[in-house]
């Protein structure tokens, strides 16, 4: 089933619908769900699998997956220990994005080193954003305390045009200017 054109189109349509809802799931999760659903439809209707595709609805599958994802997040453990996701136009997030082309140049294109650098910086940024709620960070920031807004003003002062890093084309040009490109094999 997974090698059929209908299946591949169904997965692609469902991923697009999920993206419209702001939900990101692994393609394998979407594939497994679609395979299970289409097999169930064929069995219940007593039709061949290829005939069951006429009943496929990417929006409905995306709605179901988005709802399941939301329920998992709502019921998922103690969320108080997780740092909140910074807003998309966050200066620190822009700084992390801006560091990728430099990291590519510094590491000679070592993608693993670049990803580790981004992950560590993103983790630190998220932790700093949420450290007011982190009991392990008491008295850890020195005399400046935990003034996250002051930190964001400082970063914005160092890099005043932070919004450019949220433009995919600007970021891609910076990576290309560093001498690298990311292409699928």
Write the layout of secondary structure elements.
Blueprint: H1 5-20, H2 27-45, H3 49-52, H4 58-75, H5 91-107, H6 111-130, H7 148-158, H8 168-177
Helix pairs in contact: 1-2, 1-4, 5-6, 5-8
Structure overview:
The protein is mostly helical and 185 residues long. 62% of the residues lie in helices and 0% in strands. It contains eight helices and no strands. Helix 1 (5-20) crosses helix 4. The chain is elongated. Mean pLDDT is 76; it is low at 77-83.
Labels describing this entry:
185 residues; mainly alpha
What overall geometry do the principal axes of the alpha carbons give?
elongated
The pLDDT mean sits at 76
Instruction: Quote the distance from N terminus to C terminus.
Output: 24 Å
Order of helical and strand elements = HHHHHHHH
Overall structural class, as computed from helix and strand content, comes to mainly alpha
Low-confidence stretches: 77-83
Rg over C-alpha atoms, rounded to the nearest angstrom: 22 Å
Fraction of residues in H or I helices: 55-70%
Largest sheet: none
Number of helices: 8
Task: Tell me the β content.
Answer: under 5%
Kindly state the number of beta strands. 0
């Amino acid at each position: 089933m997974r090698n059929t054109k209908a299946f591949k189109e169904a997965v692609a349509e469902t991923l697009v619908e999920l993206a419209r809802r702001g939900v990101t799931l692994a393609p394998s999760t979407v594939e497994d769900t679609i395979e299970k659903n289409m097999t169930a439809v064929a069995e219940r209707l007593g039709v061949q699998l290829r005939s069951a595709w006429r009943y496929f609805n990417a929006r409905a599958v995306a709605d179901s997956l988005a709802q399941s994802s939301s329920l998992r997040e709502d019921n998922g453990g103690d969320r108080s220990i997780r740092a909140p996701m910074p807003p998309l136009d966050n200066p620190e997030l822009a700084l992390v994005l801006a560091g990728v082309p430099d990291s590519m140049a510094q590491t000679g294109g070592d993608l693993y080193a670049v990803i580790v650098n981004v992950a560590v910086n993103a983790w630190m940024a998220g932790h700093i954003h949420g450290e007011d709620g982190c009991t392990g960070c008491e008295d850890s920031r020195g005399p400046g305390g935990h003034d996250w807004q002051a930190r964001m003003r400082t970063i914005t002062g160092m890099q005043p045009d932070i919004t450019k890093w949220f433009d995919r084309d600007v970021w891609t040009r910076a990576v290309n200017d560093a001498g690298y490109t990311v292409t699928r094999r």
